[in-house]
Amino acid sequence: VARDLARLETPALVLDGAILEANVHRMRARVERLGVRFRPHVKTHKCLEIARLAAGGASETSPITVSTLREADFFAAAGFTDVLYAVGLAPNKLDHVVALLRRGVDLKVLIDNLATARLLVAHARAAGVPIPVLIEIDCDGHRAGVRAGDPLLLELAAELARGQVELRGVLTHAGASYDCKGTEEIRAAAAAERDSVVQAAESLRAAGHPVSIVSVGSTPTAIFAPDLTGVTELRAGVFPFFDLVMHGLGVCRLEELALSVLTSVIGHQPEKGWALVDAGWMALSRDRGTSTQQVDQGYGRVCDLAGRPLHDWVVSATNQEHGIVTSRAGAPLSPESLPVGTLLRILPNHACATAAQHDRYHVVRGATAIEEVWPRFRGW
Ligand SMILES: Cc1ncc(COP(=O)(O)O)c(C=O)c1O
Residue 41 Cα, ligand 1 centroid: separation in angstroms? Predict the structure, then answer.
């Protein structure tokens, strides 16, 4: 087992534990100041060590958000039994949901349509197990959910009230905050996120339905939300790592990116001014989240082995196992400046997507010594 990044076979995923801890502390302090409960999303890291850190280290009974039932299985087995599955429920997952509930997991599922509400009612009745549910609210037209003022909201609650389904509350996710231009727009997105879910909670309560959970969250809105009156909990996912998309939005500094992919220079095309590396889209992911931002970072920003950004170099193109490193301004890269075998670290556009390409984190702390190796899992 390599003890230093300089001896690791590439490509490999590197996590700076000192930056990770600082990012987690920053978010936890922010959530505390906002006066809401924290329900961190584990989908970004899928790693027990990081889930424990995000939970404040103290207790594994603290709430989490998951994006797959595999995450629910894994983290519940480790003691995280207050789980919110924050993706609309597919009918073929109902048996799995019931099995988790029978194991004592307080699993809350998400719906936004009458067809799923009816299936849930029928399934809960047949299984004899009450199923806790949140209704998804669409705060920005980004993806799924019911608009707060849509009569469907009360129809859904009425349908759920027919069976052994416990309406726990409402959830929204300001996914459109990723497309904001500047922090003022993110503040407005945070206010819209809060207003829509609080409005939905109030109309449900006015119609006599119980609402104990009012859940918001995305990393940009969590960082810039001025006030969360009426909200009970906040979810955030990418904040432990941050990434180039978050940096482009003004959510974090480049030095706060905790994740990178270690890669080796494997050749050059001097007449084209390219260096070739062994990190292609398999190691970096195909994510091009910065392509619509002011600074397009290609498939990732190139740093030296110590994690310091090098000039304006980016991975501008990828194949499965090849990356092409170029200067953003077009200045040619000479083979002398990056000899074959040079180790580089690539900062990712989207940390969730890049981490998902790997099965372990090599944890360093501001240096190249590997202090720990943390496993992570993938798939469903
Ligand atoms: C429903 C839901 N909640 C919370 C999050 C966390 O968002 P972020 O990664 O910006 O913190 C996501 C991310 O996709 C999500 O889909």
Answer: 7
